[in-house]
Design goal:
The protein is mainly β. The chain has three helices and 26 strands. The strands form three sheets. Strands 8-7-6-5-4-3-2-1-15-14-13-12-11-10-9 form a 15-stranded mixed sheet, sandwiched between helices. Strands 16, 17, 18, 19, 22, 23 and 24 form a seven-stranded antiparallel sheet that branches. Strands 21-20-26-25 form a four-stranded antiparallel sheet, with no helix packed on it.
């Protein structure tokens, strides 16, 4: 973890961030001023997962990101801007925690922006890869979340120059993995904050009144990351320390691992595929689960459940087949939604395809469970399907029909 002084700054900033208003506003962003070096700290629960440091002027922005999910990476980016604030070119390089180019991987990439298009060229040691696509509307370069947030200052500056309090940007990720721009609306919600529509979820950014980012609240997004501005930090030392932890076998690992459960209950063969998020110091059972009244019962892709014979789950008949599992918070307690749609990402839920919703029994466990865990526990003539995280367990009985 970083020094206690940085933590105190983060706590204060997060407390202030909770005051962000969410009502529509019409206050335009004041003209941005050139900013000295800014440092942003990104946390997932109690864990620092990335540090970003950058400088921005009217014509240029450049920054360095040290990230540790799933392994330590050092990324450096730069963006050249035209007189209207529109990006003309963006460059990104990627190195490991020791500053060494990634063996066989992408060393760097560059993006050139035209009036209605973007051309991305990725550079590897053996060859280059080029891809072009159409871009509509004002462009916003982006290093994929949850590592970078500083580039949102370019959106704030552009909105100020355009004199508008709501703009739909064409977000162009600095990666070859995505070959299209994504519409991303940035809207002023109060004198010092904006709401960004990110994959259909609201990301709130608070600025200092001159377009400099102070804090970011991602509690209502799927990443749940919180970001605060702190005093300048030595990124080289941080990267070195994190790289040493990797080499020492204490790799931070992905935010959520993937796991499967296979069990036999009587004549039924069960298979469950799910993501396993970690507590990371959070109280995850607040306002539903991680703030959501409907949860994917895991992380990332939707949790899948398969049975080869008909079952009775929570008193309801579930025919043989494959389903996705969702946890709903209701005034009367938690309920398990068994849904016919499969293969989707965990933010895609169609209530009309629910087969049934059954009640979940709530109990406590003595020792906190760090990573969300699904178990099938033998019980009587059948079994209990258990969902355990932190000190809470939700259970439902199941048996072959």
């Amino acid at each position: 973890m970083l020094a206690a002084s940085a933590s105190r700054v983060a706590v204060v900033a997060l407390a202030v961030l909770s005051l962000i208003g969410c009502s529509a506003g019409s206050t335009s962003i004041p003209a941005p001023a050139p900013v000295a070096t800014t440092t942003l700290l990104a946390r997932l629960g109690a864990d620092t997962v990335a540090v970003e440091q950058y400088t921005r002027t009217a014509k240029h922005m450049e920054g360095t990101i040290v990230s540790r999910l799933p392994a330590v990476r050092i990324m450096r980016y730069s963006v050249d801007l035209g007189s209207s604030g529109a990006p003309l070119r963006a460059d990104l390089s990627v190195r490991d925690g020791g500053g060494t180019p990634l063996a066989g991987g992408m060393q760097s990439l560059s993006v050139r922006f035209a009036h209605d298009s973007a051309v991305v060229v990725g550079h590897r040691s053996a060859s280059d890869t080029s891809v072009g696509f159409t871009v509509r509307g004002p462009v916003l370069p982006a290093v994929p979340i949850p590592t970078s947030y500083g580039l949102y200052e370019l959106a704030l500056a552009r909105m100020s120059l355009l004199g508008r309090d709501s703009v739909e940007f064409a977000s162009v990720p600095l990666t070859l993995a995505t070959r299209q721009a994504t519409p991303q609306t940035v809207r002023v919600v109060s004198r010092d904050s904006v709401r960004i529509s990110w994959n259909g979820r609201p990301l709130f950014v608070r600025h200092d009144g001159r377009g400099g980012i102070v804090a970011v609240d991602g509690a209502r997004t799927t990443f749940k990351v919180s970001v605060t501005r702190v005093d300048s930090l030595d990124l080289e030392s941080i990267a070195h320390a994190w790289a040493q932890r990797d080499q020492g076998g204490t790799l931070q690992g992905p935010a959520s691992t993937r796991d499967t459960v296979q069990a036999t209950v009587g004549s039924a063969h069960l298979w469950i595929d799910y993501g396993r998020p970690a507590l990371r110091g959070r109280d995850v059972w607040v306002n539903g689960v991680l703030g959501d009244t409907l949860w994917r019962t895991g992380a990332n892709a939707a949790t899948q459940f398969r049975t080869d014979v008909d079952l009775v789950i929570g008193g309801a008949t579930v025919p043989a087949g494959t389903y996705t599992l969702w946890t709903a918070t209701t005034p009367s307690g938690y309920r398990l939604a068994i849904n016919r749609q499969v293969g989707q990402w965990g933010t895609v839920y169609d209530a009309t395809r629910d087969l049934v919703r059954v009640p979940l029994r709530e109990s406590s466990v003595a020792a906190p469970v760090e990573r969300f865990t699904i178990d099938v526990e033998p019980a009587n003539a059948g079994a209990l399907l258990d969902f355990t995280w932190g000190t809470k367990r939700l259970s439902v009985p199941l048996s072959p029909k």
